[in-house]
Fold these 3 entries.
Entry 1:
Amino acid sequence: DITISQFQWAMEDTENNNAEEVSSSLVTVPGQPEHSYQLQSVVSHHGAGAASGHYVADVYRFDCGGWCRYDDTRVTKTDSLSVRTGTNTANGYIFTYIYQPLWEECQRQFGEGQC
């Protein structure tokens, strides 16, 4: 299991988390070195409380070869640095990870796609 503190460590580690510039970087789960995962998406809540605000999703898309932000009806390109250091680090609600061998297979299948 991945804890929030492990995610925060991964988000703060600008050298090792889905950096497009360093595609071979890994996020490993402490205590289980045989299992490595890549951050694939972050859903964040923006607002004063649970009764107000809205959700934004940052998703790594293999078909685009990078990160996209889904904010209501707007979809924009973003980058790994913004995902790791933006408001997600304080407002992150749901985090999804992909097992490293599966990540690599998806990278091979989609190559360097562009949206």
Entry 2:
Amino acid sequence: MASGETPISYETASKVVPWYKSCRYALALWAFFGFLNVYALRVNLSVAIVEMSDEFGWSNGKTTIVLSSFFYGYIVTQLPGGWLATRFGAKYVYGFGVLTTTVLTLLTPLAAKKLPLIIALRIVEGLGEGVTYPAMHAMWARWAPPLERSRLATLCYSGAFLGTVIAMPASGALANSSFLGGWPSVFYVFGAIGCLWFILWMALAHNSPEEHPRIHDVEREYIVQSIAAGTTRTKSPAVPWSKIFASRPVWAIIINHFTQNWGFYTLLTCLPTYFNDVLWFDIKENGANSAYPYLMLFVVSNVGGQMADYFRFNNILSTTTARKLNNCLAYMFSCVFLALTGYTHKGQNTLAVVYLTLSVGGNGFAQAGFNVNHLDVSPHFAGILMGLSNGLATIPGFVGPSVAGAIAKCARCSQPWEDTNGTVLYNTYWQGPSKCPPNGTIPQDFTQCSLETCHAQWQTVFWISVGIFAFGALVYLVMGSGEPQAFDKEGVCDEDDQPTEQDPLLQAN
């Protein structure tokens, strides 16, 4: 902002351009639909794989390999995604990342015929989708005024949760239908929707307010001034890696991103299997009940974002306190109700869904906790920090489900099975290379187990997640901060381009 120029306040900007007409909220909405798409593309396999594993004879172990293989690619492009978006614009990085996942989703039914091929395809899907979160954080560094960060970011990223809500029951219905061959239709329908979104995104999204051809002058100046982003930014500021890695608040974000994703990804990929094996939901009912927790997550994340910005804007809480409050609420819900979930039994389906809904849904408060905290501690390197934390937090994406698969080996054989005496049995439980042994024989690599054994194994999976959640909450409570860190200013802004102290919107502390 030039010296002597009067800053535009939030009140003035809101009177001239109400939020429902603003370009920054329009961007949040289009990004919302983008994340809705990428999560629908990500989780549809979690539902369809119940039918696919029956058709192709995949065991729980093979199923978890297919589900987790996505994350081997996803982790690779986190830092490159943040770097590319920071330097060349987030619009293209985000858009083409989603398109890559979309096109490969359309090829999934063909690839599924060979296990190595679908694993390879899922890895490449992960490479494309890995750039999305870092790219969007880089975009919000240019678009989100400090005291609107929580609400804009949570609105944008909550699309992922609504995508899960829509994809799970829709995938269950499609997989259980005869449309386009049943389960293959899951990938054709969501892939086609993703292609349509890409066309609209490329036509309507812009990298910054300065590049937007239709934005009102007042909104443009308000955003630029409140962020104090300086068009005087140096062309290629060096990333202060050593100071980033020495920062306690950065490590609080990284550790919490890791711990939150452990529980989130374990449930996201394994919840349909748990419902099927322990609670005996059929696939159509399975999809609907699996979606309820993520509907709650969608609602709570937006409520938490509005709540955090209300407290900050009205000087009720500092940014640090607001972030820690949201984070503690999130982990409290997750720990208590996930532990209770493990003690529900077959026939207590409604209670299990209620507990899971409160556990997963309550975790939405974390979206206004650590998940937006990158923009607080370093607006200029937010995309790179998101790439760093989300990259390391991707490890639970393949380790968590793999651990769950290694522990929960006992699986339900829902198909009729004929024992060695010719007696047909239903809903038997086995540990082995597939869910059901061949009819009339029990190979040496199969061991019969029980519903009780299966349930006890899943209780162990849940308690591991509870312990990891609790550790994350403690770390953030001790090390978290909402204050801008010293390394954020290095090589980025000139001295005369710093925020003034006249407008409270320029003091997001």
Entry 3:
Amino acid sequence: SDPAWRQAVLDNVPSLLALRHVMDEGINEYKIVMLNKRHLSFRVIKVNEECVRGLWAGQQYELIFLRNSNSERGSIQNARQALRNFINSSCDIGYPIYVS
């Protein structure tokens, strides 16, 4: 919320340094965060919507019908060709996206 930070981002400053205060379960921690601007190339793809519905249905079948809440269940195992982990993370049930 610091106006100087916002202005630095708008000015495309190549590096930003921040001190972050984190209070978790009564423990105070201070973290230093260094952000460096760099070029990142990526591809945008289009996925067949029936493929997405099929993967979501498989996940819902396992969670609701089979009552399998194991985090290593088949419907969320990595299948690079079908982008299974990525697609299932967009489903509204049971497998939210977390950033670590």
